Amino acid sequence: MSDSIILGIESSCDDTSAAIIKGNTILSNIAANQEIHKEYGGVVPELASRAHQQNIIPVVEKSILKANIQQNAISAIGFTRGPGLLGSLLVGTSFAKSLAMSLDVPLIEVNHLQAHILAHFIDDANPVPPKFPFLCLTVSGGHTMIVLVKDYFDMEIIGKTIDDAAGEAFDKIGKIFDLDYPAGPIIDRLAKEGNPDAFKFNKPKLENYDYSFSGIKTSVLYFIQKEVKKNPDFIKENMNDLCASVQKCIIEILMNKLEKAAKDLDIKEVAIAGGVSANSALRQIMQDNHEKLGWNIYIPKFEYTTDNAAMIAMVAQLKFERGEFTDLRTTATSKYDL
């Protein structure tokens, strides 16, 4: 790994983040969260892009300061080109272009989904990085997919959600339970005090490795409507058990397909990535499968699970070594194939 110093910028959704990487060592990883979306129960694109405009300069300045480097030591700038919210991506893309031009350094575009997967190669993400080929369950608020990773930039999606993402299902069900946004971490916390076998919800029956999460959301909604008619305090009285049961169902859906893919392809190297990979029950079942199925498992550090610039910087570093640069005509894109 080279000694080049790269600034990574991430602005795909509602977190503004900047990181400095040297080789594959993260020197700083700074993020500004946008609390305003809690009021609306979800990310409001217009508000997100405005907040990015306010946050991006202080976040980049702080990342350079924390890394203890001079601005002119930066060898290249990596940025999230997509996928994500177009307005948010435009802020990061425009800033990255301007800074690259002023510093006269190369510009490197990064696919946000690749970055979640390749975060595993940051030197403190895992004790050892995954070996190729490996399977990566990439699961977040916007995406749920099983990716066969043959090399750094040779990836194939072998299964994906046909409707909601798993993180989206957690948030929508959280709304039914009248929990704050984002609901995933709250459900995870409350589930620790609940009985995961208290209630049963519908699971989809899809043939291949694809997922569906709209069914469980509908199943929960109808169940709650029925129970609340009988007892208006049903949710409050059963909150922990409801959260534990929902979490168990979603994680079983995720793991059933991942286990099937690992068995069918005879792959023992298995990783998780994305925001939902911070979920404690998912992390635990991965540990269990290390024992039960003999998997070599790769679970990233918490700070590399959510949207962060460290993963963007990691991909930019790999591309820098390959001389894969982009020019100033590049534009942000809300859809960006893996």
Automatic annotation (TrEMBL):
* Classification of source organism: Bacteria, Pseudomonadati, Bacteroidota, Flavobacteriia, Flavobacteriales
Q: Which organism is it from?
A: Chryseobacterium formosus
Asked if the Swiss-Prot or TrEMBL record annotates the protein with the keyword Iron, the reply is yes
**What is the catalytic activity of this protein?**
L-threonylcarbamoyladenylate + adenosine(37) in tRNA = N(6)-L-threonylcarbamoyladenosine(37) in tRNA + AMP + H(+)
Q: Where in the cell is it found?
A: Cytoplasm
Protein name, please?
tRNA N6-adenosine threonylcarbamoyltransferase
The protein's required cofactor(s) are namely: Fe(2+)
Family designation: Belongs to the KAE1 / TsaD family.
Q: Gene3D superfamilies from the entry?
A: 3.30.420.40
Residues annotated as domain Gcp-like: 25-313
Matching SUPFAM superfamilies, A to Z?
A: Actin-like ATPase domain
Q: Which UniProt keywords apply?
A: Acyltransferase, Cytoplasm, Iron, Metal-binding, Transferase, tRNA processing
UniProt cross-references to HAMAP family, sorted A to Z: TsaD (MF_01445)
Q: Which Pfam families match?
A: TsaD (PF00814)
**Underlying gene:** tsaD
